[in-house]
Amino acid sequence: MEHFFTCAEFVSVKWVQVLSGFSDKIESMKTEISTTGGEKIVGELRQKQASERLLIICNGLRSSADHPATKAITQKLYEHGHAVFTFNFSDTHGMNLKQQVEDIAEIINHFDSYNEYILIGGSFGALSISIAASRSPKIKGLITVNGFFGSGRVSGHLLTKYLAFRTLTATSAKHRTFWKFYKREFHPEAITIPVLVIHSKADKHVSIRQSQDFYSRLAGPKEFRTLETSDHNLMPLTEVDPIVEIIDGWLAKTKAK
User: Fold this and answer.
1) Helix %, strand %, coil % for the chain, to 5?
2) CB burial class (10 A; 0-12, 13-18, 19+) of residue 111?
3) What is the pLDDT of residues 193-233, one digit of tens each?
4) Nearest to 30, CA basis, from 11, 15, 49
5) pLDDT in tens, 82-111
6) What's the CA gap between 253 and 257, in Å, rounded?
7) N-terminal to C-terminal alpha carbon distance within the chain
8) Spatial CB neighbours of 59, under 8 Å, sequence gap ≥ 6
């Protein structure tokens, strides 16, 4: 595992002490992770106090760690004392579900001094983390926000894209490989760790039914919370505080003893 830093990337770092365990106190640290496939995962670790737990926030399809909602939620969780890692998936131009799952595993291997990890995924990222959940025993919880879980319960331009994708699975090897991976690996009933499912009633792109169906199949401890006014992209940002309060409260309840 390697960290790559420039002088500029240390500007916002107050001090960093690397020990054998979890004792780093970091304001903000840019991190670049080299994957086994030769790709780069670029992200930022934010941590203000010693922590046994790392929250890993996974963005949606063609989104990024710079999305206003992601940045706002990250900042609030950091202010609540959580260690948070936000990043961009190594393949940011395509819908590579397998690569996203592998990226999450690479991140966990990189930050191996933490005792446990909580995966937070929005939209398509919710699907990625639900598959990644079984890849490491140190993953102790999942949080999905306005999750897309592979069904056709979408609207508008997303429905057009979904139907086109499903058609291409019959003729395109790339799309068929994606679909086979999804069908083989996506099994909510096998998820036994605690899961918090959050979905907005005002989401007009991905139906709340996707999250409800996912929730109904979960085998372990679970909680379902709804938002009232946010759209699929959690805009406007008026519900960021309620989202963070929901997440922070749930994290307190699921903290490893």
Assistant:
1) 40, 20, 40
2) buried
3) 999 999 999 999 999 999 999 999 999 999 999 999 999 99
4) 11
5) 999 999 998 755 678 999 999 999 999 999
6) 10
7) 29
8) 65, 67, 70, 86, 88, 89, 122, 123, 125
| Average pLDDT of the chain, as a whole number | 87
Q: CA angle 87-92-96, nearest 5°?
A: 110
**pTM of the full predicted structure?**
0.88
How many separate helices (H) and strands (E) can be counted in the chain? 7, 8
Tokens of 189: 């009933």
- Residue 150, φ and ψ in degrees, nearest 5: 95, 0
What would the two tokens of residue 164 be? 């086109």
The C-alpha atoms of residue 83 and residue 70 are separated, in whole angstroms, by 15
All structural domains of the chain: 49-254 (3.40.50.1820)
Beta strand 222-227 pairing with 195-200: parallel
Q: Which residues are bridge partners to 55 per DSSP?
A: 84, 118
User: By the 8 A CB rule, do 131 and 101 touch?
Assistant: yes
Distance CA 61, CA 72 (A): 19
In the DSSP assignment, the letter for residue 61 is T
**CA–CA dist 69, 75 (Å, integer):** 10
